[in-house]
Write a structure and sequence with these properties.
Elements (H helix, E strand, L loop, with lengths): L1 H48 L11 E4 L6 H16 L4 E3 L7 H10 L14 E5 L15 E7 L13 E4 L5 H11 L6 H15 L9 H14 L4 H12 L7 H5 L3 E6 L2 E9 L3 H21 L4 E10 L2 E8 L3 H9 L5 E2 L4 E3 L6 H15 L4
Parallel strand pairs: 1-2, 1-3, 3-4, 4-5, 7-8
Antiparallel strand pairs: 6-7, 8-9, 9-11, 10-11
């Protein structure tokens, strides 16, 4: 009996110790979870506080991108205006021109209308997205109150003596920065916003195949697809990409300006129209059309150099057919990019990665023009 009682006592003691250990472990886990939750809430609060001094003045903040707006510019403006509203800042998305067919498809998928066009920024509070160039901005931007810039390009010509929110990252799409900001501020991304941001990222990164793609872009896509209720991301990309390749019913000039941007470096102002093609046969045909269109467009534009770049993605490879105006435009291009693979009499052809406007074309011209000031 004594032996049995001793065994029961030992078993009871062991169970008590085990229970205490389990309870202690559970309590430790709960404390750890509470600590990290508190740290996360503190991080949200500090991130929100970091923009608390944003001076918006009277009236709303207009969130707006560049001229000849693409999907990243339009979708980011809408999504970021919503973010500012959620944080208590009155904001409205605006456009710097009519949306293209690809963007219209994304907006239709998300179930939203295109933002209204802002004709004049003078005197208004402006939050720029997807660029920081006066040459790409709406009229009156030099007299606007710039409160913020959100971008994934190089530093542009927009300046201000005021404090402002400035967030630029070497990343695949401005929309990815917006996704990160929603996470950093602890804000919920609704279904509509998720569809907009997803479409913008897929567009600007070529379905995550571009050279500027980061792990943040890759993580954003499945997260946003789940929130948007889009099960087949590849099918969604193919559909919006098909719209980007459609120039049906458009004049040659409309095609040139469908994705056109202007820049200024070392006192030289230049413009580049970016055009998509499904294959090299189409690229050659579009190049021929741009060869005829560029001289007429040059006469109406206030630029020193003018180019059209026709891009193709074939089997994962990027190819660019670059068409130049004659004269100074051609001389500067040949000096800045002597490594082209072929010149067919109409276009300079770049294979093995192409000549991306954002990654190679603009940086290359910037370096050359800074090293060889135009007289």
């Amino acid at each position: 009996m004594k032996k049995l009682l001793s065994m029961i006592l030992m078993l009871s003691l062991a169970l008590t110790v085990a229970f205490a250990e389990d309870t202690g472990a559970a309590q430790d886990e709960a404390k750890t979870a509470d600590y990290y939750q508190a740290a996360l809430e503190r991080l949200y609060m500090l991130n929100r506080a970091s923009i608390a001094n944003m001076s918006i003045g009277d009236g709303p903040v207009y969130v707006i991108g560049h001229r000849s707006p693409d999907s990243d510019t339009i979708c980011t403006a809408i999504a970021y205006a919503r973010l500012l509203n959620l944080l208590g800042y009155p904001a409205e998305a605006a456009a710097n021109g009519q949306v293209n067919k690809e963007t219209a498809y994304i907006l239709k998928t998300a179930g939203v209308e295109a933002p209204p066009v802002l004709e004049d920024a003078a005197g208004k509070s402006i939050f720029l997205v997807d660029h920081s160039e006066y040459a790409q901005a709406t009229e009156g931007m030099e007299d606007a109150h710039i409160v913020g810039i959100l971008d994934h390009h190089g530093v542009g010509s927009v300046t201000t003596g005021q404090q402002l929110v400035y967030e630029a990252k070497p990343i695949g799409a401005t929309a990815t920065i917006v996704w990160l900001d929603y996470l950093n501020y602890g804000l919920e991304i609704d279904k509509t916003t998720a569809a907009l941001l997803l479409g913008a990222i897929l567009s600007d990164t070529g379905n995550l195949t571009g050279t500027t793609v980061t792990e943040a872009d890759r993580q954003a896509v499945p997260d946003l697809a789940a929130l948007a209720g889009i099960g087949d991301v590849d099918a969604f990309y193919l559909a919006l990409h098909a719209e980007s390749l459609s120039y049906e019913g458009m004049s040659d000039e409309e095609i040139l300006f469908s994705d056109y941007k202007e820049y200024e470096t070392a006192g030289v102002k230049y413009g580049i129209g970016s055009i998509n093609a499904i294959d090299e046969e189409t690229a050659r045909a579009l190049s021929e059309r741009m060869k005829e269109t560029l001289p007429k467009a040059f006469e109406t534009l206030q630029v020193d150099l003018l180019y059209a770049s026709v891009g193709i993605r074939e089997n994962g490879a990027k190819i660019n057919y670059v068409v130049s105006c004659e004269g100074l435009s051609k001389d500067v291009f040949e000096a800045a990019f002597p490594y082209y693979d072929e010149y067919d009499g109409t276009a300079y052809i770049f294979r093995n990665g192409g000549l991306g406007r954002k990654t190679l074309f603009v940086p290359g011209l910037t370096d050359y023009l800074n090293a060889h000031p135009h007289e």
